[in-house]
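Narrative summary of target 7.
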Amino acid sequence: MNKLKMPTYFLSHGGGPWPWMKDEMPFYDALEKSLKEIPSQFPAKPKAILMVSAHWEEKECTVTSNPNPPMLYDYGGFPEHTYHIKYPAPGSPELAKQVHQLLQSAGFPAQFDAKRGFDHGAFVVAYSMYPNADVPMIQLSLKKDYDPKDHIEIGRALAPLRENGIVIVGSGLSYHNLRAMMTGDRSAGPASKAFDDWLQKTVIESTTHERVQKLLHWSEAPSARLAHPREDHLIPLMVAVGAAENEDASVIYHEETFMGNITASSFKFGGVYV
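Modeled conformation, tokenized:
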């Protein structure tokens, strides 16, 4: 009998608090549209979102456990009003305990953090999906070592949550070389496209087994280190893939003119019934 499961996602989240700066950052229309469409892809409203953001890393897996998470304005140089944004989604200590237990059972030491707030990798995409903040959300950190194998296995450990109405979201960016983007480096466009072409083939066209094997060796891909000098914004993809390891993927966002000349993508893994 087929089981009802929530899909998993790797979402490119863009830069800073862009939903609150549309006049100053007018190049987010395609990304915003893709994020707003995500709720229509669910069979029912999620019970909660488990967000794995590129903007939180710890030595060991750490999960937020505050029932009312505060905000973490982890950016600089933006207008004053962006440091007063509120995204008052409730947390879920119950879900945090489930995540902690699943990770421990899979051999990953895990910790709770009762103080950490939502970082912009979490609240930007959550706000675009659910602007009323009416879906509980917790965050899970990356591991500082960025080991792709470990993060795929973390996704595998968390996969059972999908049968309980939990949406697992990896929030990063398919190209993240800030220096190249901010300085107008002409290599950014070709490098982002070369890496994105590889990523599309790996995620969409490979068998599920091949997909995992190629992602384990992502640094050998064309322009890999030009696209990700530091892989914090790519590793959330591994968790999303691991949690839907044997399921098909689809592209839900793709453009080649992001911020002028950057190629960027987002992916959905798994259908509703598998």
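The first helix runs from residue 29 to 37.
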